[in-house]
Design brief:
Elements lengths: L1 H9 L10 H68 L17
Length: 105
């Protein structure tokens, strides 16, 4: 019976337990910590995102430059190979019935 009286004194008129100042301070402190954590985490993630976007743009440009470099050099190598074939009198190997050797893995 005594526990019922104590419980009735602690509860307000709606049946919801009243919180002590210490509980309210703890909740306030917890809310503050959560807010600081989310703000800090969001800032860190936004900085990382900006860095990754910048790095992505730089690497995309580098890939494009390397593709152009490879394409230009392939054309030059093909021209050089055709020039050497003409010097040797070989001509077009496909027209002569030659095929490329199978690739080894």
């Amino acid at each position: 019976m005594e526990s019922l009286r104590i419980r009735l004194r602690v509860e307000d008129h709606k049946g919801i337990p009243m919180r002590s100042n210490r509980d309210l301070d703890n909740w306030s402190n917890l809310r503050k910590q959560i807010h600081e954590f989310t703000a800090t985490t969001q800032q860190e993630l936004e900085l990382e995102r900006a860095h990754l976007l910048s790095k992505n743009a730089m690497l995309s440009q580098e890939v494009e430059e390397l593709r152009n470099y490879i394409d230009n050099h392939l054309v030059r190598y093909k021209e050089e190979i055709n020039g050497l074939r003409q010097m040797l009198g070989i001509g077009d190997p496909v027209a002569m019935g030659f095929t490329s050797p199978p690739l080894r893995h």
